[in-house]
Write a structure and sequence with these properties.
Length: about 525
């Protein structure tokens, strides 16, 4: 009797949760842990900082390509076999990344990391949703959400600490013990449910190819667009056309072929479709603010990278506290109300960050972040629980693949949008503020005289002091312009959260049904 046809042994759902969380946390951590190490990687491998960013881009592209077809792969090869292969591949490629003698070697194994790591999120989520009965899925998602929300926040802190105290190579080596623990627990405690069997259905090679090319092109556009000045670059324009053609062709094919690699008809369920849209929005705001706040701390307030990472820890602390609590609350209250409170709280905290100025202290940054972390728990856990509540177990892998893909794409769009708007808005604000400064303005003239007097007091002659004063005044205007740009972007992100709150009540409230038999 083979493993698929053998009876599935009972395993405590919380043991299953721990088993799949090891791999998930490790993979999500790697989306941000490398960021702060890029200058060290560039110096060690004798490449430019721009070239070193391919260590990030290659991972994100490979991750995005594999995510949507994970459900298909799990059904085709078996979920346990796929999960084991993914963890082994991710752990081994992490080791090889740490050994990288040059950039090409590193990029190749970052691609392998991305391909194997992309499998872990949706498969882990599907396993956990099936392991717990419907009434306890909120608790399960609270636990799983710790890895998804806290890991990206912990990444820059851990990456900075490892790089400063050891070497950038330890950013990859740290995955090895976690990967080994995940392999052992997956082998012992994860089993395929009876309905997951390899079928005789044809592999939709054309669909997989179109999806892979389209998603890869889109991810490269989002990652490199700002750097290349978007559509003024011929190769970015070419990639945009390629992505559009491939993705439209893919959607048409999947809706018409008998054996689609991705079952898009799951979007007929309005609760799921709305939930995916809200998760995309969450990815946009969460990852956008994760980029925006450290940039504000470093470029405006002058924090070193490691201190900026530590200053962002309160958000992770808030999420760490709220996730398990919200998991219990979802079984007792309408999760749509919890989700609405979370979105409202997230909007308020972003408005608070949009009220900062150049005189802020640590606690002015601490409390909005802490409450934002609490809000993320109120958003993530109920949203996942509601979105998946009406999905059949046989479709769970397909549904979680799309769900995780759209969160990641939302994050990529958020990062690209924030980076572009910050750069352009800062320049606009500089021009606006600079237009108010002239020799006919008494305040501007008084400030220039004061600055010039300070330079003269240090021993400069009048001409040199005047030039230095103009430069200093320009720097003050530039700093204020950047500050205004940051404030406006925080408020825009707050507005995004606020306007989607009514969509919550389009979704159906999950009904407390009979506990399902554990399927893992």
């Amino acid at each position: 009797m083979d493993e698929q046809s053998a009876p599935v042994p009972y395993v405590n759902p919380w043991v299953i949760a721990v088993a799949v969380m090891f791999g998930t946390f490790m993979e999500v951590l790697d989306t941000t842990v490398v960021n702060v190490s890029l200058p060290h990687i560039a110096g060690s491998l004798s490449v430019t900082a721009e070239e070193a960013t391919w260590a990030l881009t290659s991972y994100l592209v490979a991750n995005a390509v594999i995510l949507p077809i994970t459900g298909f792969l799990a059904n085709y090869f078996g979920r346990k076999r796929l999960l084991m292969s993914a963890v082994v591949g991710f752990t081994a490629s992490s080791f090889m990344c740490g050994l990288a003698p040059n950039l090409a070697f590193l990029v190749v194994f970052r691609i392998v990391q991305g391909l194997t790591g992309g499998v872990l999120q949706p498969v882990s989520q599907a396993v956990m949703l099936e392991a717990f009965p419907p009434a306890q899925r909120g608790k399960a998602m609270g636990f799983w959400g710790l890895g998804i929300v806290v890991a990206p926040m912990l990444g820059p802190v851990l990456g900075g600490w490892l790089t400063d105290n050891y070497s950038w190579r330890w950013v990859f080596y740290v995955n090895i013990p976690v990967g080994i623990a995940s392999i052992i627990m997956t082998k012992l405690f994860i089993f395929d449910p009876s309905y997951i069997r390899r079928t005789a259905a044809k592999v939709d090679a054309w669909g997989i190819g179109m999806l892979a090319v389209g998603i890869a092109a889109l991810q490269i556009i989002l990652d490199k667009g700002q750097q290349e000045d978007w559509f003024s670059s011929h190769w970015i324009s070419g990639l945009a056309i390629l992505a559009g053609v491939m993705l439209v062709a893919f959607i048409i094919r999947e809706l018409t072929t008998a054996d689609p690699v991705l079952h898009l008809r799951v979007f007929k369920e309005r609760t799921y479709a709305t939930g995916v849209f809200l998760m995309t929005t969450l990815g946009f705001v969460m990852y956008g603010s994760l980029v925006l706040l450290p940039l504000f701390l470093q470029t405006v307030l002058g924090y070193p990278a490691i201190e900026a990472g530590i200053a962002m820890a309160p958000r992770g602390l808030g999420s760490f506290i709220s996730m398990p609590i919200v998991g219990f609350l979802t079984a007792k209250f309408d999760p749509r109300k919890l989700l609405s409170v979370g979105l409202f709280g997230g909007a308020i905290t972003l408005f608070a960050l949009g009220s900062l100025n150049l005189q802020v202290g640590y606690w002015d940054i601490f409390w909005p972040q802490f409450f934002q972390g609490l809000s993320m728990g109120l958003i993530f856990v109920p949203l996942t629980t509601i979105t998946m509540s009406l999905i059949a177990r046989e479709e769970m892998g397909n549904a979680t693949s799309i769900f995780n893909l759209m969160r990641n794409l939302g994050g990529s769009v958020g990062i690209a949008t924030i980076a572009t708007m910050l750069s352009r808005n800062a320049q606009t604000q500089y021009n606006v503020l600079g237009s108010h400064i002239s020799m006919f303005d008494t305040q501007a003239r008084a400030m220039l005289d004061q600055i010039r007097g300070g330079f003269i007091a240090r021993g400069m002659d009048f001409s040199a002091a005047t030039n230095a004063a103009y430069a200093a005044l320009s720097g003050i205007v530039s700093q204020q312009a950047v500050m205004v740009a940051f404030v406006q972007l925080f408020r825009i992100l707050a507005l995004v959260f606020a306007v989607v709150i009514p969509l919550v009540f389009i979704m159906r409230r999950p009904k407390a049904g009979q506990p399902a038999a554990p399927a893992h």
